[in-house]
Amino acid sequence: MSATLDSSEMPQVAKNNAGTPSNNIVNKTFSDKKKDNDNNSRLNNIIKVKSVIPRKRQDLLKWYGWGYKDSMFKLQGDMAYFTGNRYSIGEKPLPHLQKWAVDYFNIDTNKPPKIPKLPTSYPESRLPGNVKQELEKIAPVSVDGLDRLIRAHGQTLKDISYVRTNKFPRIPDAVIWPNSHEQVVQIVESASRHRFVIIPFGGGTSVSGAVTCPAKERRPILVLDTSEMNSILWLDKEQLLARIQAGIVGQDLEREMRSRGFTVGHEPDSYEFSTLGGWVATRASGMKKNTYGNIEDLVVHTKVVTGRGVIERGCLVPRISCGPDWEHTIMGSEGCLGVVTEVTIKIRPLPAVTRYGSLVFPDWESGFYFEREVARRRLQPSSIRLMDNEQFRFGQALKTESSWGGVLLEGLKRMYITRIKGFDPAQLCVVTLLLEGDSEQVCERERRLHEVAAQWGGVPAGADNGERGYTLTFVIAYLRDVAMEYDVVAESFETSVPWGRALALCDRVKRRVRDECRQHGIVHYLISCRLTQTYDAGCCIYFYFAHNTAQCSDPVATYEAIEEAARDEIIASGGSISHHHGIGKLRKKWYTDTVSEPGRLLLLAAKKALDPDNIFALGNMAFEEGDIKDSVSVKSKL
Ligand SMILES: Cc1cc2nc3c(=O)[nH]c(=O)nc-3n(C[C@H](O)[C@H](O)[C@H](O)COP(=O)(O)OP(=O)(O)OC[C@H]3O[C@@H](n4cnc5c(N)ncnc54)[C@H](O)[C@@H]3O)c2cc1C
């Protein structure tokens, strides 16, 4: 195997600071043996990546919400704007956003925004002093209140509401930052000896409550922050593979790969902050999965530290017919079976051409049938997304220009679409496209897509609109913070569904949400959806729901009750518990209906086999939350 490495930086060889050999957990792993063979060429070229995100995350990121501290929506007078210059709409007035927010949510912009105050006190750490000292010999440890608070949660509405009001029933007792697989082995051994709980923490972007501390846990909880484990261990240009530590953040990974002429191509909307290990642990899906695959298609090999030892396959092969693929037990295990420390992942040469595109359709059904036909013919470009009319209008509200009507409906294009084609602006829908490949492939694919679009009344609406659609994806995540400042709660939920049931599902879920709002006395709300991924057998539908909380004594509980009703409707309509957001604690209720009893028992058996002491007591999926009794309950169920 000819391995070519790119960095001249010296390796960060893992140190056992405690000075004790790792005895309990398997000492020599398969990939160590492999390293012995390839040592000379690989070890000298480990690339320690300098992450955009510092260890003190709070220096760069908001402690109470989404993303960078310097990036947020602000309402001022009758104008809205987005601060900072990290995103294309930064520091530009958004003349339509405030009117849109008032129209939909009846917000009172004269009231001062509710900006949360940093807590002044935190629960005392329950980590015993002797254990802390032992851990400090392995890797840096913090018991600082804010370090613990910001790693007590992910990004669900409840998480963010609790962090803003300092209402968490339980936060971690300490945070540790290992920088190597070997250090993780020692930490897990220590947990086994001293009976504390470990929560693996990547980017904290979970939207399922997966990373949130189990409220009932009585043992000390240690958050194992993977962010210092972000080295590229080797990169093989011939085999198009790279072995990477699991804590690398998406944007760092992509930047490093691009600078060497490659891409992993996995771009979930959270990829600025989420990590490789998090993607594996949640079975993530990226926006360009049509070209590069979802995470399960990209991963070739994982190395995982469990309570029972290190689990990994002994060879690096593209496929193996060797019984059920247990690596799929790790993918989607949501931190409950162990810590993913290293991942071998496919890489691709950078495409010669990246082209955006957009199409306008007279209504949702036409756009939907276009997408269905594209999937039937397997014509999907890297990304293809259909937005409903509500989202089209929201896109208009985020325009930086002052003329109402929007980019899509400007000038001649506007006249063509509305007057000549006769599209109703209150019905029309937009498809955004992202095409990658060589110039000829991209042109040919675009031509064929336009041909199919024409059959469903679709009209090309230009590259700028497509690009804008994709780049705005990253700022949309910032809206919830400003919404909460004006008493609006918001969240997204998603599903996968067979083609034949998708249209009915969208209809029924929207109707159910409207009915629920009526029953809860909610007048001002938004329910909207888009079709974000397509497959041979169906698609992913992604809903946004937001409402004014004026009528709600407990806004989060009301939101959750409505989302729960929506999920019941999804399941009744033939949809799944989740397409890529995972189960966590939020969607556990539907786990047993999704997986039959033998399936649940198989998961519990895997837990018993890999984590007999219930070190990873996160309480996600089929596992009960928390305290030491739960490990017994897992055992007794078997
Ligand atoms: C704005 C926004 C957009 C999003 N868009 C997408 C999207 O397009 N596609 C998508 O799939 N998801 C998306 N998500 C969800 C989320 O980003 C993914 O679930 C992501 O994979 C989580 O990665 P993370 O590193 O942030 O993990 P975390 O949130 O830190 O953890 C998630 C779970 O994985 C476990 N875990 C993390 N690292 C490890 C590890 N090394 N070993 C073992 N367990 C580990 C944790 O214990 C936890 O149970 C989005 C979320 C937000 C807030």
Automatic annotation (TrEMBL):
| Keyword flag Flavoprotein | yes
A cellular-component GO term for this protein: peroxisome
Instruction: Report a single Gene Ontology molecular function.
Output: alkylglycerone-phosphate synthase activity
- Which domain of life, per UniProt? Eukaryota
Q: Name one GO biological process term.
A: lipid biosynthetic process
Enumerate the spans annotated as FAD-binding PCMH-type domain: 168-350
Q: Which InterPro entries match?
A: Alkyl-DHAP_Synthase, FAD-bd_oxidored_4_C, FAD-bd_PCMH, FAD-bd_PCMH-like_sf, FAD-bd_PCMH_sub1, FAD-bd_PCMH_sub2, FAD-linked_Oxase-like_C, Oxid_FAD_bind_N
Q: Which UniProt keywords apply?
A: FAD, Flavoprotein, Lipid biosynthesis, Lipid metabolism, Peroxisome, Transferase
The protein's required cofactors? FAD
| Binding locations of substrate | R480
Start-end of Polar residues biased regions = 1-29
Q: Where is FAD bound in this sequence? A: 200-206, 269-275, 282-285, 334-340
Q: Supply the SUPFAM superfamilies for this chain.
A: FAD-binding/transporter-associated domain-like (SSF56176), FAD-linked oxidases, C-terminal domain (SSF55103)
The EC number on file is: 2.5.1.26
Indicate the residues that form the catalytic site.
Answer: Y542 (proton donor/acceptor)
Q: Enumerate composition-biased segments (Basic and acidic residues).
A: 30-39
The record places the site described as Important for enzyme activity at: R385
**Which pathway, per its entry?**
Glycerolipid metabolism; ether lipid biosynthesis
The compartments listed are: Peroxisome
Q: Which reaction does it catalyse?
A: a long chain fatty alcohol + a 1-acylglycerone 3-phosphate = a 1-O-alkylglycerone 3-phosphate + a long-chain fatty acid + H(+)
Q: Where is this region: Disordered?
A: 1-41
Query: Does the record's keyword annotation contain Flavoprotein?
Result: yes
User: Its family?
Assistant: Belongs to the FAD-binding oxidoreductase/transferase type 4 family.
Q: What does the protein in this record do?
A: Catalyzes the exchange of an acyl for a long-chain alkyl group and the formation of the ether bond in the biosynthesis of ether phospholipids.
The protein's name is Alkylglycerone-phosphate synthase
